[in-house]
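Design job #97: recover the sequence.
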């Protein structure tokens, strides 16, 4: 009992003498870590907007974060009564070691080929990356489902990052009937793409004759748009193509079936043979008409 009372008395004297320093040290630690995280997130967002393709931005942000955390630890230690000279030397050594490891060993560590906010396809999953941890990646699909995918599985599979490049190509594939004006159809489709302000001028939009199909002539329009406008631009161009082609009187090809009947009347004469009508038909396999794909 006396030992416990003595320990409480010592603790009370310590809090009386150093309570203010302890409180200030905790405040410095909490505020410093909060400021370091805020600087890291703000700098990372702004730099990615200016140079989204740069690979040095994450390394620079982590380095700045490490330096701010180091100054926070230094301030906390000094406030607790540690000698400033020793704290500065020790902190400087630790910061140099951490930055050296990040610079020289980081390229040897496998990294995920996407960031938070990117739309990716990992295996059979297509969705938006919501969070990345050391063990897994949280992916939200466009039908509202949330998947936690192990990072090891992602690194071992094929990953498509739809935000990795600035621009993306739009494909407009369709088929017109053989009796339509081919050159007029090509000019019309090219004009639809050229007149859209979202379509890039370089490379210029172009229309190809893709194939002479069973039901019609297959055309393919190709143009480039900004990655963030790809989906809306593609849908709008498809809609404009249908409306303008109808207005210009250009008819799309559609699956059809040709039927031909041949009849022969055979007179049996004395043998009593009766006439036989044998219909025969020849058909073509139906082919798909206008097709739209990404």
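Job complete. Output follows.
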């Amino acid at each position: 009992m006396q030992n416990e009372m003595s320990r409480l008395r010592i603790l009370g004297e310590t809090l009386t003498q150093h309570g203010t320093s302890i409180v200030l040290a905790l405040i410095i630690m909490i505020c410093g870590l909060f400021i370091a995280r805020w600087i890291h997130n703000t700098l990372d967002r702004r730099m990615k907007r200016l140079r989204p393709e740069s690979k040095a931005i994450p390394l620079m942000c982590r380095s700045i974060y490490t330096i701010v955390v180091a100054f926070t630890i230094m301030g906390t230690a000094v406030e607790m009564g540690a000698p400033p000279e020793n704290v500065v030397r020790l902190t400087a050594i630790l910061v140099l070691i951490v930055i050296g490891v990040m610079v020289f060993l980081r390229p040897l560590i496998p990294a995920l080929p996407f960031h938070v906010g990117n739309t990716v396809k990992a295996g059979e999953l297509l969705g938006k990356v919501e969070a990345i941890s050391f063990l897994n990646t949280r992916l939200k699909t466009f039908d509202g489902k949330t998947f936690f995918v192990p990072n090891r599985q992602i690194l071992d599979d094929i990953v498509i990052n739809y935000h990795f490049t600035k621009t993306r190509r739009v494909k407009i594939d369709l088929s017109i009937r053989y009796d339509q004006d081919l050159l007029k159809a090509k000019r019309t489709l090219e004009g639809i793409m050229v007149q859209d302000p979202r379509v890039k001028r370089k490379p210029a939009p172009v229309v190809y004759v893709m194939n002479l199909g069973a039901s019609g002539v297959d055309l393919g329009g190709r143009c480039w748009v900004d990655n963030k406008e790809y989906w809306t631009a593609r849908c709008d161009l498809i809609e404009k193509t249908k409306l303008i082609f109808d207005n210009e009187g250009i008819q799309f090809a559609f699956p059809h079936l040709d039927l031909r009947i041949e009849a022969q009347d055979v007179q049996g004469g004395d043998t009593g043979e009766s006439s036989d009508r044998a219909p025969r038909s020849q058909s073509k396999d139906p082919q798909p008409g206008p097709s739209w794909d990404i």
